[in-house]
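[step 3/7] fold_predict: job queued, chain A
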Amino acid sequence: MALKFSKITPKKALNKAFLKVRPLRSEMDLFKLNLITLLDKVKNEESEEHQKNNIRDFLLHTYYRATHEINTKGRQDLVIHTDKTTQSSVSVIIEAKKPSNKAEWITPDKINVKAVQELVLYYMRERVDAKNIDIKYLVATNIYEWYVFDASYFDKVFYGNKAFVKQYEDWRDGKKVTKDTALFYNDIAKPFIDTIDEEFAVTYFDIRDYEKELRNEDKADDKKLIALQKLLSPYHLLRVSFANDSNELNNRFYKELLHIIGLEEVKEGGKQVIRRKLKDASEGSMIENTINILKTEDSLLKLRNKQAFGETKEEQLYNIAL
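[step 4/7] structure written:
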């Protein structure tokens, strides 16, 4: 008997209809920028707490900032909630290790390791203690490598085994020799996992396999990053609706249109306003190209009422271009 992982690629893991929806250029640019930032922050000597914060920042700034809370919960490294509050249910559980922690990390021939045992503990706490039925995925990552488990496997194998649930509850309630987590890992989870004759389908990727496409300037190479970009989004990890709501699709088109023009929508004083993007963030946009043409042709000199377009030259150029 042995627990086995059947690895599937991000592309194979995604809903086929979702895979056909092309990400917006702004979404892909943000994903690449933040993922490069994450990789550049990897330092083997840093603590796992430090690495965990970097992973949180990457996910939050790329996908979840305005919609879902990402934070610790108790002893769990990271969780993604179903909405913006910590009072909402946990939907995704993440166990983060630093790249140099080989002893506790997963390899093809060493699956029953602490990273997996910790995910089992966190799942049991959510499923048994919190009565949480909203968990979608469990993730183990050392920043480079990512294992994404469907929660249904954990529900079937661990929560679905009454004897294992009883062992967990007895340990939780202090009916064992100690309530130390080491006892759960070494004397409850590890022996139980050794008895499992089951194959888990797990989505696996190594970010280092995508570094060439990630860091070059060839936009055509971005096609190879699409499945990776989609996999960590709320549309996959939280199973948020992506195509059934026509308003959602219109909103995506609206945001892309603003990006192409060189504008952005932000909240100022409780109101949504549209403003010019920072020049570095919108280089090559329609409005920046138009401003460059106006400057090249000295168009302001030909206007009699240029003050009507603003007090400064920059304001005049922007408003005329718009």
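[step 5/7] annotate
The longest helix spans residues 48-64.
Residues 4-241 form one domain.
exit 0
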